[in-house]
Design a protein that fits this description.
By secondary structure, the chain is α+β, with helices and mostly antiparallel strands. It has three domains: 111 residues, no CATH class; 102 residues, Beta-Lactamase (2-Layer Sandwich), CATH 3.30.450.40; 158 residues, Histidine kinase-like ATPase, C-terminal domain (Heat Shock Protein 90). It has ten helices and eleven strands. The strands form three sheets. Strands 6-8-9-11-10 form a five-stranded mixed sheet. Helix 4 packs antiparallel against helix 5, helix 4 packs parallel to helix 6 and helix 6 packs antiparallel against helix 7.
C-alpha cells in the first residue's frame, strides 16, 4: 500500500494560489474585452464572466485567493467596462450600486465555493484515511505474531504520514523490548511519541520523526494516534493468540498424560496380576504342582513379561520420538532375517492363529535400521493377533514394487471403518475410542508410522477381501546395494506357505 495522505498542500497554500487567481482574472478580462468589442455584450452580462473566474479561483485554491479574485474582478470590471471607461470613477449612481452588488456577490460566491471545496476535500481525506486503515487492518489480520505485525505497521505509518521515519517498541515483562523501525531515524527532526495502549495497559510506544519543513498538523497527529491504537489492538490480538495456543498445548499435554496414565495403568495391571498369580501359586507350599502345571505357570510369567517388555519399549520409543530422536544408521539386511526373531519372540501370542507367509526367495537386501523395523513388525503382528478372532489366519507377504519393499500384514478381524483409517496412526487413538477387551495404549501404530516415515517410506491400512484389515508399509530400496544370497535365506521356496505356529 503506497497511499500517502495530503495533510499539507504546499503548492495550494502558497503564493502560487494568489498569483493563479490574479492570472485568471486578467485572462477573463482580456477574453471579455475581445468578446465585448466583437459581439457587443451588455455591461450586466460581463459581470457573470467575472463571477465564473471568482468561482474557479475559490474552488481551486480556497477562500483567500477567491477573495483576492473578487476584488481584482471588481476593479477590472469598473476600469474596463463601466463608463467612464479606463478610469476608476463612476458617473452613474446605478452603476456604482451594481459594482458594489457585484463585489458582495463575488465575495459570497468565493466564500461558498471555498467552503464547499473544503468540505469536499475533508470528506475525501476521511475516505482516504478509512481506506488506508481498512487496508492496513486487512494486511495485519493475516499475521498472528508480534514480530510479523510490527514491521508492517511501521512501514504503513511511514507511508501514510509525511515523516522521516517511524520506530515502534513493544514492552514485555518476560522478554527484552522488541523494536522495529521504518524510514530514516534522523536527529534533525522532532520526535513525536504515541503510546500503544489497550484499556489501562500500555504495551509500548510509537515514535515518529517529523520533517523539518513539514511538521505534522492536528489531523496528522490524530491519524498517528489512530494508527497507534490499531497497532496496540493488533499486538494484543497476537499476544492473545499466543496465550490461547499455549493454553491449548497445555490442555493437549494434560489430555495426553491422562490418556497415557489410563492406558498404561490398565496394560500394566493385567500382566502384573497374571505374573503375581503365577508366582504366588509356585510359592504356595501347601500345594504340590506337577511338572506340567509348573511349566504352565512359567509360560504365563514369560508371556506376561514379554507383554510388559513390549509396553515399556513402546513408551521409551515414544519418549525418544517426542524428543526428536533421529533414525539410527541404516544397514543392509534381509526381511526374513528380521522377521524370524520377531515370529519366535511372539510365538505364544501368535499361537491361536495360523500363519501364512508369502515372501519371494529373491528379495533384495534393504537398507534399514534393524531394531526399528523389528519393532514395526512386532507392533503390527501383535496388533493383528489382538483383534483377529482365534483360529483365523494372519498373512505376511512381501514384494518389490516401485523401487521399494512392500510388506503387508493381513488379519481376519473386524476391520477398520473408512473414516478412521488415518486417525488410527495418531498417538493414544484406539478404534472407536472405547475401552476394548484387548486393551492397548494406542502407541504401537503411531510408533510404526514414525519409524516407517523416518525410513522414507509410507504406511497405511486398507480393507481385506472377505473381512478384516491389511496393514502395508514400504521401505525404499537402494539400487546400488548388495544383492541377497538366496542360498543363505531361511525360506528357500519362491513362495512359502506356512500353516500353524
Amino acid at each position: 500500500m503506497s497511499l500517502r495522505l495530503p495533510f499539507r498542500r504546499i503548492a495550494r497554500s502558497s503564493t502560487f494560489g494568489y498569483v493563479w487567481s490574479c492570472g485568471i482574472v486578467v485572462l477573463t478580462t482580456a477574453l471579455l474585452f475581445v468578446v465585448q468589442h466583437t459581439v457587443g455584450l451588455q455591461v450586466a452580462n460581463i459581470s457573470l464572466g467575472y463571477i465564473v473566474a471568482v468561482l474557479l479561483a475559490a474552488i481551486s485554491y480556497g477562500l483567500g485567493p477567491g477573495v483576492v479574485a473578487s476584488f481584482l474582478a471588481f476593479v477590472s470590471y469598473n476600469f474596463w467596462f463601466v463608463p467612464p471607461l479606463y478610469t476608476f470613477s463612476v458617473a452613474n449612481p446605478q452603476d456604482l450600486f451594481r459594482l458594489f452588488l457585484f463585489l458582495i456577490v463575488a465575495v459570497l460566491t468565493s466564500s461558498i465555493a471555498a467552503r464547499s471545496r473544503s468540505r469536499t476535500e475533508e470528506a475525501q481525506r476521511r475516505a482516504r484515511i478509512q481506506e488506508a486503515l481498512y487496508r492496513l487492518s486487512q494486511t495485519i489480520s493475516a499475521a498472528v505474531e508480534v514480530q510479523a505485525i510490527l514491521p508492517i505497521i511501521a512501514q504503513q505509518i511511514a507511508r501514510l504520514l509525511p515523516i522521516q521515519g517511524c520506530s515502534i517498541q513493544v514492552l514485555d515483562r518476560d522478554v527484552p523490548p522488541l523494536t522495529t523501525q521504518a524510514g530514516t531515524i534522523g536527529s534533525d527532526g522532532t520526535a513525536i511519541v504515541a503510546p500503544l495502549r489497550v484499556g489501562l495497559r500500555t504495551l509500548g510506544v510509537v515514535r515518529v520523526w517529523e520533517r523539518a519543513e513539514l511538521p505534522l498538523d492536528a489531523d496528522a497527529r490524530q491519524l498517528l494516534e489512530t494508527l497507534a491504537q490499531q497497532a496496540a489492538l493488533a499486538v494484543e490480538r497476537a499476544r492473545l493468540v499466543d496465550e490461547t495456543t499455549a493454553l491449548q498445548l497445555v490442555a493437549e499435554s494434560e489430555r495426553l498424560k491422562s490418556a497415557l496414565l489410563h492406558s498404561v495403568s490398565h496394560d500394566l495391571r493385567s500382566p502384573l496380576v497374571a505374573i503375581k498369580g503365577a508366582v504366588s501359586n509356585l510359592l504356595d507350599e501347601t500345594v504340590v504342582w506337577d511338572g506340567a502345571a509348573q511349566h504352565s505357570f512359567l509360560e504365563t510369567i514369560d508371556l506376561e513379561a514379554d507383554r510388559l517388555n513390549l509396553l515399556v519399549r513402546n513408551l521409551l520409543d515414544m519418549s525418544r520420538i517426542e524428543a526428536g530422536a533421529p533414525l539410527p544408521p541404516k544397514e543392509f539386511a534381509a526381511l526374513d532375517d528380521v522377521l524370524g526373531p520377531v515370529l519366535y519372540r511372539l510365538r505364544t501370542t501368535l499361537e491361536p492363529h495360523p500363519l501364512e507367509l508369502w515372501i519371494p526367495a529373491d528379495l533384495p537386501l534393504v537398507p534399514m535400521a534393524v531394531l526399528q523395523v523389528d519393532q514395526i513388525l512386532t507392533n503390527l503382528l501383535e496388533n493383528a493377533s489382538k483383534y483377529a478372532p482365534s483360529g483365523t489366519p494372519i498373512t505376511i507377504a512381501a514384494r518389490v514394487s516401485d523401487a521399494a519393499l512392500d510388506v503387508e500384514i493381513a488379519d481376519a478381524g473386524p476391520g477398520i471403518p473408512a473414516d478412521e483409517r488415518e486417525r488410527i496412526f495418531d498417538k493414544f487413538y484406539r478404534l472407536g475410542q472405547a475401552e476394548t477387551a484387548q486393551g492397548g495404549t494406542g502407541l504401537g501404530l503411531a510408533i510404526c508410522k514414525y519409524w516407517v516415515e523416518a525410513h522414507g517410506g509410507q504406511i497405511w491400512t486398507e480393507p481385506r477381501s472377505g473381512g478384516g484389515a491389511i496393514f502395508r508399509f514400504t521401505l525404499p530400496l537402494d539400487s546400488a546395494g548388495p544383492q541377497h544370497d538366496a542360498a543363505a535365506r531361511s525360506i528357500h521356496d519362491s513362495y512359502t506357505s506356512v500353516s500353524g505356529r
